[in-house]
């Protein structure tokens, strides 16, 4: 998979996932002049600033109006553009869900919704700004593609890939710096899951399916478990929808038990999507690591990830409970 | 577009009557749907589809066409009727309105009827889409573009905050290629607009948002055409035409009664309406009587 050779080092490089989006958008803009971008008063924060600087004519400042912005983007797409709309995930797709459903997805327009600052790891801003419902909100809409990059490099590849499709797409980004897991050589394809960690010399008994910023925690948990003689395989499911059914089923068949890990409500999230597949195709014992029907609160990202049971040790516990 | 001469005015007025007849027929057949709005907007839609619009019904994806966004999708019986009569699809198809498998969905859906610019129904979303279209038109064609984006809105839907977000953005961007037409018929589902959520002083509000505001009698063909001409001549801001219309116009029983906003006529009411329309309210007597 050509992952970062320093992945297991204490000083592994870190970068915010949103940064990769910014780099990808700029490159997509250079490659295709149909790409336009619009932001709701969060241009620097959502990393649209480089695009805005290089392509001022193709950048539109919407002001703080996420609902209208989604529909304006639909109108732009109707005229042949590929619009990227960015805000915080709480407000887009949080506040403007029905505009996304009707004017983008029902209309079948290739608008790309960019939700930054997703998850409790937003930290001190508190529960109002911690979107832990956005995967559920977007994956339930017909036609919508949902991408949750695990690091900055994957976010860049995902951004470039989604700029080339005609599908309405949601990409979920995180605010804080997180460890770099992949390299420029790691393959990325929308709809394809990948095994990121497979222990050597240990019998595999649990599959961990993780997405977004928590893929790193999942890998670290599996690595420690391997040292304890417990075999856990980690799959990065970069696209929540359409989900890579074959890969999910194959992992469940191989391991016999599945733990899903996401910085999102357990209800309706990535784990639910995995369960929807397995319940029908290959009923498998499961545990869901994620937010358990609660709102977030202020704190440091690390404190909050631990508090809501999404840290490395919580993942290890979930794996052990299935053995 | 050319100014109206007497013959063209007469032609449009007769065409509007035909459109109203088609609307009533399709609603009776559908057994559900909205009556007041479509009849009230019949004159304006006739003026657009038979005189004002730059369009080619046989080539609906023609790049040079004007763009039409119907924001209040529930008045689609009038849109379907003018589109069918203008040649976009067979007039016979109007009888499939709201039926299973019909291209004429209860609220317009462009996936089913691709010659629509957009799907609509949930209120307040059309103006934003029209603003997006106008922004791209200007981005791609500059100020010399000869395309106009028209957005039709109901007055009740101006309750939606999103409309004012879009109005603010259009004002900021000075979108001269955007013309909004508000159907000021004073009714919405629960009653009269000024009782439900007052809009007045509407013209002043829109002007304050940076729009050039025109007010017309929405049943006068010459006023309709003149207003659009004037709107297109305004170069430094978007224009809005507040069209004062009578909901249910053309059939006494439906007129000015908000109860006809969301209900269709039954067979008997429909038959009476047809007689009234065809005799112009009793002004024309059948030679058989």
Automatic annotation (TrEMBL), chain A:
It holds the Pfam family Transketolase_C. Its cofactor is thiamine diphosphate. Gene3D superfamilies: 3.40.50.920, 3.40.50.970. Residues 15-180 form the Transketolase-like pyrimidine-binding domain. Keywords: Thiamine pyrophosphate. It comes from the Bacteria. Belongs to the transketolase family. This is Transketolase.
TrEMBL record, chain B:
InterPro entries: THDP-binding, Transketolase_N. PANTHER family: TRANSKETOLASE N-TERMINAL SECTION-RELATED. Gene3D superfamilies: 3.40.50.970. Residues 18-268 form the Transketolase N-terminal domain. Keywords: Thiamine pyrophosphate. It comes from Candidatus Yonathbacteria bacterium RIFCSPLOWO2_01_FULL_47_33b. This is Transketolase. Its cofactor is thiamine diphosphate. Transmembrane segments: none annotated. Belongs to the transketolase family. The keyword Lipid metabolism does not apply. The keyword Coiled coil does not apply.
